[in-house]
Specification:
This protein is of the alpha/beta class. It is about 30% helix and about 20% strand.
């Protein structure tokens, strides 16, 4: 079994990749055959960059073709997860806009790539949910193609936020998706959602159990966040993380304008 190692969690689109944005100056993903015991990841703490104020959030476009996404060099932070994981609610909570992303009691409603311009300097991208059992085989394939085309072809993709329902045991479809991201060299973080559905003492064992599964295939684990859209948990940490990457991009652009 191949094992994947994340050597840095900040990766920007291709024109920045040669500018040593990588924190360790090492390959972003390395395949390892040897299994070694490592410590579990720790949740990301906002301690360097100030809390990001969301002054504007504007819907720009929906489509299924990455080539038709906004013609811009602004960084894009995409959010994805299994159907009914609470993605729309999380996006609305992060942007402080109750109806920016449409929520529905019917899972699997997001079928398009949705771009939202945030503070006029970065895009939040709402990707279709995967793993909706009631879709036809053809429908599942179409959604899979949309997701893969964006992830593999969109140079502006800066970081992928993968949402996981904190209440559930590791699902095969999620673990396979993480493996796919490793193969593609895509930087990602994990967002555990619906933390309000568990008692405080139940959260850490659930997360530890989940990460222990990832540890079997990943040499190093990605950062993770614990969130609740109902209680607005994790908002500051996630926005601070994005702000930190944006700051790095800005500094690299100043130092290497061409």
């Amino acid at each position: 079994m191949q094992r994947y190692s994340i050597k840095a969690y900040i990766l920007v689109h291709k024109r920045f990749r040669k500018q040593a944005v990588n924190l360790t100056n090492a390959p972003l993903f390395e395949k390892e055959e040897k299994k070694e015991k490592i410590d579990l990841a720790v949740p990301y703490k906002s301690c360097i960059f100030a809390y990001m104020e969301i002054s504007s959030a504007e819907f720009i476009i929906s489509n299924t073709d990455p080539a038709k996404c906004p013609d811009s060099q602004l960084p894009e932070y995409a959010f994805i997860g299994r159907s009914n994981v609470g993605k729309s609610s999380l996006i609305n909570m992060l942007t402080n806009r109750r109806k920016l992303a449409m929520t529905s009691s019917t899972p699997g409603k997001t079928m398009l790539i949705n771009h939202f311009l945030i503070n006029e300097n970065w895009y939040l991208v709402d990707l279709p949910g995967y793993g909706f059992a009631q879709r036809s085989r053809k429908g599942k394939k179409q959604i899979s193609n949309v997701i893969e085309d964006y992830i593999e072809k969109r140079e502006q993709l800066t970081c992928l936020f993968v949402l996981i329902d904190i209440r559930l045991k590791p699902q095969t479809i999620d673990l396979e998706f993480f493996e796919y991201l490793g193969e593609q060299g895509v930087p990602f973080v994990i967002v555990f959602t619906k933390a309000d559905k568990l008692k405080g003492g139940e959260q850490k064992p659930k997360i530890k159990h989940y990460l222990s599964h990832l540890e079997e295939q990943w040499e190093e684990l990605p950062p993770y966040f614990v969130s609740s859209s109902e209680r607005r948990i994790g908002r500051n940490e996630i926005l601070s993380y994005i702000e930190g990457i944006n700051h790095t991009i800005h500094e690299q652009t100043i130092d290497n304008p061409f």
